[in-house]
Design brief:
alpha+beta, Outer Surface Protein A, domain 3, 5 domains, six-stranded antiparallel beta sheet, four-stranded antiparallel beta sheet
């Protein structure tokens, strides 16, 4: 044999590491596996199976259409999501991402170049039996068992051999039931897995994995469950007439087959007839945002099958009563006698009252704990707000502190340590008292400022001559760049809100140290767009990559007073994010709202490709970040967190889920 240490030895290829969720949902190319079988379980449920690995997904028809979008091609998740939105077939995004990840984990969706899941071979089962013939056989057997119980009541075993014979007959009946149900399942083109003997059970028997019966649909599941209990019913109808002492264990085995505490034939029948399959999009969450415990709990409660749950509880109560009656035979107990003894004893006594008091203490303690937690959380928030409102303390102007401030600024994030050190050396510290005017609108500007400590506010002069607030800047924020990049004149005034220290860079220093590394467009995106996105509520939680992606797609546009941005009942092709100024929202020529910096609009009509429901006009000179519909959707589908964010915002504004989409088609995007 050739040694593995020889030079010409080629080690076997190592499997590629699986991508994480972010990579899977953004750049990995996926396709629908070839060996897929899909079954319509009922009108509302589809079961999809990857046959070689024997993995399943329970889906709605709409969710199955999502996976079929990957058929006969390879595509990334953003590409498919864009097409689904465009074609009016998009489902709620949490469902979408959940089934994508689960389909990938189970081999139903496969990545190019990655190995498929390990195969699970099915048994080569040649025996078949018609499920349509099983039902009348079970009815006849059940009637025979009831007649037998009436004509020949149970008798307790009087010898050990009666127990042994009854136990053996129950084991044979259970084995026959599994064999018959396997034949029925195979007749419906379901696969049989892992047949063999099972000894670690109350009734040892021949067994087979019959869960694949679900691929035959609801009726196949019913037929398979009936086939499992048919031989036992036949035995219960015949054995009492042969020897009554043997039948007691058969009755116990029948109760065991009706148990509501495991997937017995009885519970399977109840679920198949009156229940619904558990959809994989709403349980055992894998998608990280869905793993939030409160979301998971709400989702499970929302999709709980209440009808089946009530029936299951009723079945459990009836089964326990049946067990009680069966147990009263060997114990020779009388339930009516027990109840009469309880009543004659006077009902509840000290022990019961003590238990009730303990229960009340637990309830009061739980409520008190909840109140304490809420109060503690509120106090923490108030303290945090007060601390943020206090003027920040000035930091020492050491070289390390200056470099730390510079590194905290978005503008200098990509700069190296030596570059930041040179900027710190060139920066001139300036200290301002509260209320001091730092720059004034209309004055010439030769410097750019970086906030080192304290807070400043940006103001705009209105036509009436009074200053109007535009934004508040804190440590790491930059202002004054527009005078250096554009006109050389200050376009806004800046005033100190608290004692503050600023770092000033002269024009020449700015050009030598900053513009030599970043072009003017990059500086504008970082300082005007990305810094703005950092400050507003809409995008404060976005990743830096998402902010820069939005900034690259958004155009900064200025609008004059009285200009109409959107007109009611007209098509809207843009998403607007108000950068500064004030807008008026009007319906039937009546103002219903005013929008200020950080407000946005147009996302619903862009997502639904519907006409605007209101008119938006410019109330004061304004600037907006404007993104075309196609660009906005591409931005949304490329970052699943951003997509979930806009889905929630749009749904809250509509008062109902925005997906699945309504409105006209997206032909305008084609």
């Amino acid at each position: 044999m050739e040694s593995k240490t020889q030079p010409n030895y080629i080690p076997p290829p190592q499997p590629l590491p699986k991508p994480d969720q972010s990579e899977l949902l953004s750049v990995v190319s996926l396709s629908l596996a070839k060996d897929i079988r899909a079954t319509v379980y009922d009108e509302e449920h589809v079961v999809v199976k990857y046959t070689p690995a024997r993995t399943y997904l329970a889906l709605t028809p709409a969710q199955w259409k999502v996976l079929k979008a990957f058929a006969d091609r390879t595509a990334t998740v953003p590409q498919v999501l864009f097409e689904l939105i465009s074609d009016r077939r998009c489902i709620p995004l949490r469902e979408f991402y959940e089934i994508i990840i689960k389909a990938y984990e189970r081999g139903i969706l496969q990545a190019v170049g990655e190995p498929a899941p390990a195969e699970v071979p099915a048994e080569d089962w040649t025996h078949r039996a018609s499920g349509r013939k099983v039902r009348p056989m079970v009815i006849v057997a059940a009637v025979g068992a009831v007649v037998s119980m009436v004509l020949q009541p149970f008798a307790l075993p009087t010898a050990w051999w009666e127990l042994l014979v009854g136990w053996l007959i129950a084991c044979v009946a259970a084995s026959s039931g599994y064999f018959l149900s396997a034949c029925v399942a195979r007749d419906e083109e379901s696969e049989i897995y892992h047949p063999g003997w099972r000894f670690r059970t109350l009734f040892p028997r021949w067994n087979a994995d019959l869960h694949d019966a679900v691929m035959g649909g609801r009726e196949t599941v019913v037929n398979v469950a009936l086939a499992r209990i048919a031989p036992l019913l036949v035995a219960m109808g015949i054995v009492p007439f042969l020897h009554p002492g043997i039948s007691f264990l058969l009755f116990c085995a029948f109760i065991y087959q009706l148990s509501p505490f495991w997937w017995s034939p009885g519970l399977t029948l109840l679920h198949a007839r009156y229940g619904k399959p558990s959809l994989d999009a709403f349980r055992s969450f894998i998608f990280e945002p869905n793993r939030n415990r409160w979301f998971a709990l709400r989702t499970r409660l929302k999709h709980t099958d209440l009808k089946f749950l009530n029936l299951h509880l009723g079945m459990t109560a009836g089964w326990l009563l049946l067990v009680l009656l069966a147990g009263s035979l060997p114990l020779r107990a009388n339930a009516l006698e027990l109840w009469q003894n309880y009543q004659s004893s006077g009902g509840l006594h000290f022990t019961a009252l003590a238990m009730l008091a303990l229960l009340g203490f637990m309830v009061v303690g739980s409520i008190g704990t909840a109140v304490w937690l809420i109060a503690h959380s509120a106090l923490h928030r108030i303290t945090t707000w007060i601390n943020k409102s206090l003027p920040p303390k000035s930091v020492p102007l050491s070289a390390e502190a200056l470099q730390e401030t510079i590194s905290s600024s978005l503008l200098f994030k990509g700069f190296g340590r030596d570059e930041r050190a040179r900027i710190a050396e060139a920066a001139a510290p300036r200290e301002y008292k509260r209320g001091a005017m730092i720059v004034k609108e209309g004055d010439p500007g030769e410097e750019i400022f970086l906030v080192h400590s304290g807070r400043v506010e940006v103001l705009r002069d209105t036509p009436a001559g009074r200053p109007e607030w535009v934004a508040t800047l804190e440590r790491g924020d930059v202002f004054g760049e527009r005078a250096l990049l554009e006109t050389g004149v200050r376009t806004r005034s800046v005033r100190a809100l608290s004692p503050c220290i600023l770092l000033a860079l002269h024009r020449q220093t700015f050009e030598d140290l900053v513009l030599s590394r970043l072009n003017r467009t990059q500086v504008e995106e970082i300082l005007q767009k990305v810094a703005f996105l950092h400050r507003i509520e809409l995008s404060a939680t976005w990743s830096p990559q998402a902010m820069f992606a939005f900034a690259r797609r958004a155009l900064m546009q200025s609008f004059e007073v009285g200009q109409t941005l959107i007109r009611a009942h007209d098509d809207n092709q843009y998403f607007f994010l108000l950068y500064e100024g004030e807008l008026s929202v009007q319906k039937n020529k009546t103002e219903v709202a005013r929008l200020k910096a950080g407000d946005f609009f147009g996302e619903i009509s862009a997502l639904q490709n519907s006409t605007a429901t209101a008119t938006v006009k410019v109330r004061t000179p304004a600037k907006c970040l404007v993104v075309a519909k196609r660009e906005f959707l591409q931005f949304l589908v490329n970052d699943f967190l951003v997509g979930l964010h806009f889905e929630k915002i749009s749904s809250d504004r509509l008062g109902e889920p925005i997906f699945p989409l309504r409105g006209r088609s997206f032909d305008v995007l084609r």
